[in-house]
Amino acid sequence: MSGYTAPLADMRFALAELGGLPQLNLLPGLRDATPDVVDAVLEEAARLAGEVLAPLNRPGDTAGSAVRDGQVASPPGFADAYRSFWQAGWPALPFPPERGGQGLPELVATAVNEIWQAANMSFALCPMLTEGAVVTLEQHAAKELQERYLPMLISGEWTATMNLTEPQAGSDLGAVKMRAEPRSDHFLLSGQKIFITWGDQDFTDNIVHLVLARLPDAPPGSRGLSLFLVPKFLVREDGSLGERNDVHPVSIEHKMGIHASPTCVMSYGDHGGAIGYLIGKPHDGLSCMFTMMNHARLAVGVQGLSISERAYQQARGYARERVQGQAAGFKGSVTIVHHPDIRRMLMIMKAGVEAMRGLCYTTAASLDYLRHAADDGLRRRHEQRFALLTPIVKGWCTELSQEITSLGLQVHGGMGYVEETGAAQHFRDARITTIYEGTTGIQAGDLVGRKLIRDGGRVMGILIAEMKQAADALLETRDAALAAVAKRLAAGVVALERATRWLLDHHAADASIPGAASVDYLMLAGTVCGAWQMARASLAVMQDGYDARLRQAKLVTARFYMEHLLPRSQAYFESIQAGHESIMALGEDQF
């Protein structure tokens, strides 16, 4: 089983040329994110990931977590690794200095999160959720709650969870039944939550649960949900820890993958009620929780990128070492990297990873503009761009990761199906990414319903125009290789534009049309957005300062993407245009 080495050269390229880090460095509050600082951060993150986190990935998968005496016991080594993680200041990376953070851009934090998730996805889920909780508390919690909980969460000394799902309430949060009874200065929560990632652990002194529940006077459905902060241990006014709260893990799920990450069944109020504190206004919990969910959607998209990079590295390493068969033009037995079909699979993996990285970093940069730009119009444009791209990042990157991790297993042949090689773990771990934080269908419904139809395609139209400009810029270079990239990008953009117009023209004819077409539309948008990133990379790498080896790799990889992945966009368009009739034609009893 191979280890993990952060691809720093590719990451630096994507940060500078696709994420636009030099431009972000000019924004108020981000001027300390100089190239030397960012390089030092990436180098140190790569070291911790390679030396500490990655070596725990396979043992953690084998050992798993368990509930013992009312508490989760994490896999051996995880507690020490987390101690090293928070003591080095990593959880504080993207938060403002006035709150104890390091004030680096979300773009840089996204790159660092890629490293954590690739090294050890199970481990990295814990700080990922804590970061989302911090953002939620910053935006919605009362000052008193912020002062009491944020310093310890930002430092990483405490962790946080997101508690939405119940046995009868998965994607339909309107079915949540957990109760919250008001008391003088707090609430008492009772009920059960399931699928709670890192709902408990044994390596921090406290855990902060963000919990959706209903007040006694709550209206039915999702409009009756409120959000509460429920600590594992109560916190006194002086910040010290008090008694154990009435919340505990009942069990952990036996999952297909991410075995080291405990996915808990959590029980609240078995002994009178778990003490919680309201976040935001009564009955406005879903709006508050969407702050954390949107942060998590981007982060899960990055997981799709990360686990794909890890699978690619392992497949590449195996292909370079495994001697098997003969190849045209070579004498004797060869390593399998010489076989065209192995090359095909490795190129799909490589091109997919680079396209995903560009899209994830571009989306994270919009979040930085939204938070830091002085110009109101610029902030608004990036707020809309971030909202449009987030479901694409989450849906497309995680769906593509299913293909890439499967190809990683295929490159290994029979050895990939043997757990000891580790290829199967990446395949298993990746599978959850299309499901949690909203399935691909939910992301697609959000993209088509809320982000496309609701505004008549205006924001998507702006993005399409920007893609056309990228194609024109490639043509203006009068370089033959770039012209070929531009031609294929333009064809993909036409497919996206026609699909967008078809949906806008036909969605009102039948209520089933948007739902029937939405996943194909998301995959079409993601595939074309990936091509856009590859085109931008092709143009950037032709500038002075990039050596010939990197230039060739980027140009060939972009050409491969345009020739072998982008043609899928036409098939997605044809599926969309075919409509919904054959999808909905069979009766229920015919399935």
Written account of the structure:
The chain has 591 residues and is of the alpha+beta class. Among the domains are: 8-155, Acyl-CoA dehydrogenase/oxidase, N-terminal domain (Butyryl-Coa Dehydrogenase, subunit A, domain 1, Orthogonal Bundle), CATH 1.10.540; 159-288, Butyryl-CoA Dehydrogenase, subunit A, domain 2. The chain is 57% helix and 11% strand. Strands 3, 4, 5, 6, 7, 10, 11 and 12 form an eight-stranded mixed sheet that branches. Helix 5 runs antiparallel to helix 6 (121-140) and helix 10 crosses helix 15. The longest helix is centred in the middle third of the chain and has 37 residues, at 285-321. The two termini are 42 Å apart. 50% of the residues are buried. The model has no long low-confidence stretch (mean pLDDT 96).
Quickly list its features:
Butyryl-Coa Dehydrogenase, subunit A, domain 1; Butyryl-CoA Dehydrogenase, subunit A, domain 2; two-stranded antiparallel ribbon; 12 strands; globular
Question: How are the secondary structure elements laid out?
Answer:
Layout (H helix, E strand, L loop, with lengths): L7 H11 L2 H4 L10 H29 L2 E3 L2 E3 L4 H10 L18 H14 L1 H20 L2 H13 L3 E5 L15 E4 L4 E11 L9 E8 L10 E7 L1 E3 L5 E4 L2 E6 L10 E6 L5 E6 L5 H37 L18 H33 L3 H37 L10 H9 L8 H14 L4 H19 L3 H27 L5 H30 L6 H18 L2 H10 L3 H4 L7
Parallel strand pairs: 3-6
Antiparallel strand pairs: 1-2, 4-5, 5-11, 5-12, 6-7, 7-12, 8-9, 10-11
Helix pairs in contact: 1-9, 1-15, 3-5, 5-6, 5-8, 5-9, 6-7, 6-8, 8-9, 8-10, 8-11, 9-10, 9-15, 9-16, 10-11, 10-12, 10-15, 12-15, 13-14, 13-15, 14-15, 14-16, 14-17, 15-16, 15-17
